[in-house]
Amino acid sequence: MNHIENLSNEIFYEIFDYLDGCAIYQSFSNLNIRFQNLIIHSTFYLKVQFSSKSQSNLTIKDRYERYILPNKHRIISFYCDNELYYEEFIQLAPFNSTFNYLESIILKNISTFQFIDLFIYLKSLPRLSSLQIFFDDCDDDIGDIFQLLFQLPFLKYLKVDTGDYENSSLTLPVATNEQYTSIEFFVFFHSLTLNEFRRLLSYLPRLTHLYCFTIMGFESRNSIELFTNINNLVQFNLCIHGLPCNLCQALLSKLALQLNILSVTVFNKDKRYLDANRWEELIRKNMPHLERFISIDFLSFFLLILLYFFSQDFYDFEEHLSYDRHSCPGVNLNIINLNKKQVYINRLKSLFKIINVTRLVIKCSINSMKAFIKILKVLPNLMMLCVTFLTHPDEFLRAEEDMIELRRCVEKSEITNVTIVNIEDSGYVDFIIDLFPQMKSFSIQIIADYNLLSVTEWILDRIKMNKMSHPMKVCIMVENGTDDLIEKLYEMIDSKELLKNYTIFRKLDIFYIQWN
């Protein structure tokens, strides 16, 4: 215990923040006087977890009476994921108004009957602001449950997962003014018709964030006209199944005035969802504050595409590398699937004319030189490029005339920041350095079998051969980076006379080499 006791109380509080409050008492309170004082006579908040993974030999009743009741004024969150615990727990009349700091509750694998029995105690909590419920195969009408939930006076965050999205129904009357809730963040996993969705939203006029799965079709446009505006909604994630495009866009025009972020996932063969002109018109007329738009169509044969507007960082090794967003304003375009016919590129031309795409991330294999050239041509303002190679550049560059056209395209571009992922040999490095001699930042991810020193030497040698003497930064990500490699890099670079006036530093597994 001599070493662990040297840690400060603040560090122990941080550790305790990850542990079950009952387990903290059971494990630490009898160790010594310091831990007794630390746990019993301090004011840090407790998180209680009744988990099926718990290895406690105490019953629910024992834990409740020994640890929960004496500390009810310190409990900030409660979690339970075992359906067998609920019956015993409910019999204890577990919560009341004296739990005056309990703010968050997560209930998993609970039946609707168990929740109704527990609800009377939840209603008495004076600070319950966050509630997540994951029902176990809910086949009942979920409308009765929502009517109970909407009675919780202080709730700000609500997540409801019915388990069986299609079999449970929802019957709700339209809310009156007296039934409006304080909920601002609402997530639900349940299949709804437009009318069911409309009645549900009538209880939620203060929503700022809405995630819904899934909205079904088969209703008329008249249903849309009955929706009331949600004036504070800034983020809307919507999953569509069978709803025609005209009804979906009519719904969005009704709800979307203040939106900053919109995500639409579509399971529908209606090809109007792929019409960029329709989305452009919808955004122009109804979403003046939109910063990010994400549209994914799983049933089409076209591109799965994500557009990130203005607020997102450029993708570099899953955000390990960063850049100054203000030095490269504009929009991220992430391409996660390329269709062989490339029909989508022409379809999206009109959209790219009004969106200043400056950062392109291609997260899938590029097997077609023509497709790559076509993408670059419709994005003339690109400044940053991230490419994933799953085929060797030699296979990619089969036609000499295509390579000539690619070079012409790149020469006209403003691309100065290039990242390549999935590097297997030096051919990838040669290809990028030869193609982008104007780049100021070059980042690569190398696989474990490659030696950092040899890869760095090859990169710097190619840069020197191409006479790229302007200020530049090279970033190399490896699987296991250590500080001793920095000294070895200095020795190698100096012995080979590859650079002058340069610096090297490391962040986690990324090595940065920078020179002026």
What can you tell me about this protein's structure?
By secondary structure, this protein is of the alpha/beta class. The protein has a domain at 310-466: Leucine-rich repeat, LRR (right-handed beta-alpha superhelix). 33% of the residues lie in helices and 23% in strands. It has 19 helices and 19 strands. The chain has helices at residues 9-16, 21-28, 33-40, 60-68, 83-91, 112-122, 143-149, 194-201, 222-225, 245-255, 276-286, 343-347, 349-354, 369-378, 393-396, 400-411, 426-435, 452-465, 484-496; strands at residues 46-50, 75-80, 104-110, 130-135, 157-161, 185-192, 209-216, 235-241, 261-267, 292-297, 305-309, 331-335, 357-362, 384-388, 417-423, 441-446, 472-477, 502-507, 510-515. Helix 10 packs parallel to helix 11 (276-286), helix 17 (426-435) packs parallel to helix 18 and helix 18 packs parallel to helix 19. The longest helix is centred in the C-terminal third of the chain and has 14 residues, at 452-465. The chain is flat and about 80 Å long.
